[in-house]
Amino acid sequence: MxxxxxxxxxxxxxxxxxxxxxxxxAAAAGLGLAGAGAAQALGGQAxxxxxxxxxxxxxxxxxxxxxxxxxxxxVVLKLKNTSGHTCNLRGYPGLGLxxxxxxxxxxxxxxxxxxxxxxxxxxxxALKDGASVAAVISWTHANTGTPDARDAAYLQVTPPANTTxxxxxxxxxxxxxxxxxxxxATDVHVG
Length: 191
Known about the structure:
Layout: H1 3-30, H2 35-42, E1 58-66, E2 72-81, E3 87-89, E4 94-98, E5 104-105, E6 108-111, E7 125-127, E8 132-140, E9 149-158, E10 166-175, E11 178-181
Parallel strand pairs: 6-11
Antiparallel strand pairs: 1-2, 2-8, 3-7, 4-5, 4-9, 8-11, 9-10
């Protein structure tokens, strides 16, 4: 190999390494990482050691019941951290309906604004042990007793990033099995 070819090859490898490092730094900057955080992200280490909240480390319950005109009904859903440590939650709870025999009923869930509350949007919440978050669930019941309505007895609640659920008593008629739910937040504003 000639001296010129070796020099050219070495420059090419150095340029590739420099380009890859520059791309990684640019990506870190685009994600809003800086200083030690960028170094951790580039080094492959997790920026946070706080685990995601698991279904088994949470309790589910209902808070304030919501009523109103035009056949609307709703409830505040609460998830409380009982894991013994801080954990993260982000996003919307999964919901499903069950009949009195715990058989799954057909249903659909809309994530976003509900009849009673504006959606606060997805935010990562570091939930301390003993602390709670809430979401607002709403539905209509205009077709009570008809084939277009689901006669629910229970509500399945799946925390974000989980595949198992909690089950709550939920005696309600739900038109077409359609539920609306806001993202989980530390404070909900019902209006």
